[in-house]
Amino acid sequence: MQPLNISYSKDNYWVKEKIEFKHDEIYGTVSCGIFDEKYSFGEVEYKIGYAEMKNNKKTWFGYLEVNRKVERRGIGSCLMDIVIENVRIAKEFWNIVDTICLSGWLSSADHKNGNWLNSIPFYINQAYKSNCKYELRINYDENIYSSIEDFFANVGDKDGHIIYWI
């Protein structure tokens, strides 16, 4: 099946989504930008699979990046709103009533370069704005962290995950 390419506006942003369907899985890329800033935008990828949602209660997003020229202007929030809404739509379409985990990887490289000081508060704020519960995890250990301080105190040089419960 050919990818579906859709363009629309959301609030004050232009949005382009590329959605591919493969064997009951949805692979999407969302780009979003400010109309006046033609070449400065943000992008995020996501994967939603029926079997993973039904059996393991999981979906994923990754590679959220916003061009520095337009940081802190709402593009990242717009991108995450769309991803979270797409998970909600997929749940409804596939009649899944269970709470689903939307997991995003937090790389240790971003921790070392200081990016986590901005990205983790952003992700937590998105949880509140989207009416989702969240948790922070270190790799895939069993510990759940709900505060940035506890997470930073325990993460060391490891990768982490932000998890939204939808």
Tell me what the structure shows:
The chain has 166 residues and is α+β, with helices and mostly antiparallel strands. It folds into 2 domains: 1-71; 99-166. The protein has helices at 50-56, 75-93, 108-112, 116-129, 148-155; strands at 4-10, 13-22, 25-34, 41-49, 58-66, 101-106, 133-138, 160-165. Strands 1-2-3-4-5-6-8-7 form an 8-stranded mixed sheet. The chain starts with a strand and ends with a strand.
Strand order of the largest sheet: 1-2-3-4-5-6-8-7
Order of helices and strands: EEEEHEHEHHEHE
Uncertain residue segments = none
Protein structure class: alpha+beta
Distance between the termini: 28 Å
Number of domains: 2
Radius of gyration: 16 Å
State mean pLDDT (0 to 100 scale).
93
Number of strands: 8
| Main sheet makeup | 8 strands, mixed
Report the β-strand fraction as a percent range: 35-45%
| Rough outline | globular
Percent helix, as a range, is 25-40%
Q: Count the DSSP helices.
A: 5
